[in-house]
Amino acid sequence: MTEMSLYHQLASAIIDQIRNDSFKPGEKLPSVRALAKQQKISVSTVLAAYGVLEDRGFVEVRPKSGYFVRRVLNKTPKAPSINQSTSHPQKVTTPQRVMEVMRDGSSQQFIAFSVAVPGRDFPVVHQLKRSFAKVVRNETFLGIGYDSPKGNQPLRRQLARRAMDAGILVSPDEIVTTSSCQSALGLCLRALTKAGDIVAVETPTYYGLLQLIEAMGLKAIEVPSDPHAGMNVGALKLALEQWPIKAILTIPCYSNPLGSLMPDDQKRELIDLIYHYDIPMIEDDIYGELGYEGTRPKAVKAYDHKGQVLLCSSVSKTLDPQLGVGWVIPGRYQEQIEYQKFLNSISIARLPQLAIGEMLAHGGYERHLRHARESYRQRRDRLTELLLEHFPSETRFTQPQGGFVSWIQLPPGTNALKLYLEARQEGILISPGELYSSAANKYQRSIRLCYADAWTPEREMAIKTLGELVSQQLEDHS
Amino acid sequence: MTEMSLYHQLASAIIDQIRNDSFKPGEKLPSVRALAKQQKISVSTVLAAYGVLEDRGFVEVRPKSGYFVRRVLNKTPKAPSINQSTSHPQKVTTPQRVMEVMRDGSSQQFIAFSVAVPGRDFPVVHQLKRSFAKVVRNETFLGIGYDSPKGNQPLRRQLARRAMDAGILVSPDEIVTTSSCQSALGLCLRALTKAGDIVAVETPTYYGLLQLIEAMGLKAIEVPSDPHAGMNVGALKLALEQWPIKAILTIPCYSNPLGSLMPDDQKRELIDLIYHYDIPMIEDDIYGELGYEGTRPKAVKAYDHKGQVLLCSSVSKTLDPQLGVGWVIPGRYQEQIEYQKFLNSISIARLPQLAIGEMLAHGGYERHLRHARESYRQRRDRLTELLLEHFPSETRFTQPQGGFVSWIQLPPGTNALKLYLEARQEGILISPGELYSSAANKYQRSIRLCYADAWTPEREMAIKTLGELVSQQLEDHS
Fold this sequence. Notes:
The structure is a homodimer.
Chain A: H1 3-19, H2 32-39, H3 43-55, E1 59-62, E2 66-69, H4 95-105, E3 111-112, H5 124-138, H6 153-163, E4 176-178, H7 181-192, E5 198-203, H8 207-215, E6 219-226, E7 230-231, H9 233-242, E8 245-250, H10 264-277, E9 281-284, E10 309-314, E11 326-329, H11 334-345, H12 350-362, H13 365-390, E12 396-397, E13 405-409, H14 416-425, E14 428-429, E15 431-432, E16 446-450, H15 457-477
Parallel strand pairs in A: 3-14, 5-6, 5-8, 8-9, 9-10
Antiparallel strand pairs in A: 1-2, 4-11, 6-7, 10-11, 12-13, 13-16, 15-16
Helix pairs in contact in A: 1-3, 2-3, 5-12, 6-12, 7-8, 7-11, 13-15
């Protein structure tokens, strides 16, 4: 028996013991050294086995204490199934529903799981406020005419520094600031396409992208996405062979709504593909810094030496959605993006750029990220517990490794839009699956939940209510 | 002889005396009481005559001192001539030149008359800073998720209040905030048109509009504009008869670059016309509050009871171009504009909206406007003096009654682009006329100068240098 199968075998045995409650939630596992001795195997084999358990979410490491069985998971959630056929190019609809979701989400009257906004309970709010106060006090942000078309230089310096974490080497002058990630994506699409062109996106994908594509008179080809690995590169290749696709638009690191993370070798394949077909790729990296693993995943752009990837991001998911600071790293499309930014707004607000630059330089951003990532992981786990407890057993859902949205596939016989409407009556907001595809009737049994906010008894009760509404649908159906 | 003709006659007599140097620049006119006694006429007649002199720019009032002859104006400048033929629909060009002008304008190395930014020496900068500091200290601008798609409510309340000055009655909910006026104009064009459509604009007009039209795949019909009265409504009517125009885009109050102000009866005609053809009109009102007369002119939208005018503006000309706060009053297109705003940026920065709301409510905005208007009037007068002194006598130029840009038509035989390039070599930035039309070779003898900044010996010398470069061209030509 090889070393590899040995540690897998050990991991499986422990998972069985967790499942049959021999190891109870919260209980400490034997120390690595003790288990190695007891089983007469090497310390590194035990470490590898514990690593598998950690990766799969069965145990957690508490520094200087050891490995503990995590709460939850006597049942393993099943990932949602995504239909693996690529769509024909088609138009998008439902702006009214999208605006209803956005309007409701800005109201304080609902218990909201609908709109993807960061947790509101983090101390970073105070750090940000200090950064703003400092900049207002010390910096010249008025009375100096227009800024460079690229945007504020000190901010771009910080962004260039942080891009290195994603494996991207750029100078501050190779970055263009924007007022949001959505605005950055719009600039890219306008620079690269014209009405009638076809753009490839993954499915399911964020409705803001689909609506933008529709509004620009473009057509979307929806390439199936894997709940773990993101856009299916093989399916994309077939689509590229078949259609005159002008650009690819994807969210490789913690996609919205699946939370999938594209593996590095798949990222390399994607680069090979866009080089082969000589078409640009727009990478939405807005969740890239919110992974639960230790190191930040590489961006697809990290593998791009030809400047063919345009990376878009903002601080809307890491800090706050009302800061008005996003950016593009446009590669070879630098001139076009600066021009599109000029057309779109002439210039953008200077003060928020200065304040975010200050925050990234001196405001404890890394500490905030560590705290946020750990909080989101815990909040995902609590959501998992609640879904397992309150939703019918045939419910499938993602276990994202980053970000803060979960994609939930309800049992056959249910309807997500009906759930959305009934929940809204109860004061609970969710995001119905139909928004995430341009194909009519595609995600009729799916919903997206944002779990960024701290769990309160009220929010936990709302998940219970949602589960009851789903069960009721099943009963009515049968 | 009626009372009215009496004071006009008196005013004319004094103007003659100013012109033949009986009253010298800087000299005090007789007191009202003394002149009334001397001429045996009523005090009110003298007051009315002095009012005419003030309106026509011959004298200025110094509080508690009396009426003084202003410098300037022994010659009367001639307005530029605008070719009165409407163009066929056509595409726009020269993004490179536009970006060059924008990039240079953000540099501190030049003496700049090119980009239209407010004066940098006004105390309002400090008031704004206080408003920002107050909002950062007292308001919740973070950790509250997304705002309403309409934008910040306290700001919209202030904007609705101020819109009344322009004759517009709207509730705060009938306003949508944006990140700039350019962004507002873009939202409107996207809501109203699709690629291939024709939009009517005045000529000459601001290059940001022409470039936006081009980039959206639209075509521009250029309707001639009068240096005093703005877009020629008769010519527009002919264009509407001939072409399937989808929207009209105009700057009725202190247009850029002419500084023209459309008379109220012409505004009414314009409304009748858009009602007759049932097409929407986008009104760019960014300079509307910067008139040199006492009362703010009415917007075209003031005469629109059907909601067919979409008014766009921002604080970029009244306060500062880097604040990131603009808005639309979209009339019947409210839903579409909110949706376009969502597509364009999801949401915009909250803090600047709060700070501008605070500034408009308590920051001394009216006092600032009074100060800015008077400064711009004086700076226009100084520009007039300098142009009369240093430019060849065949030069024609506008005398704007608001805003802070002047349109200058150089003598036959000169070339504005050549002047632009030569001036740039000397470290002086101007805006070449070709940017203000989509027709090649249209304004080859015209330039736009921004006179918002205070006159310094260096800036005055730059105008002299420009004049010498023009004279040199004439010599080389002859």
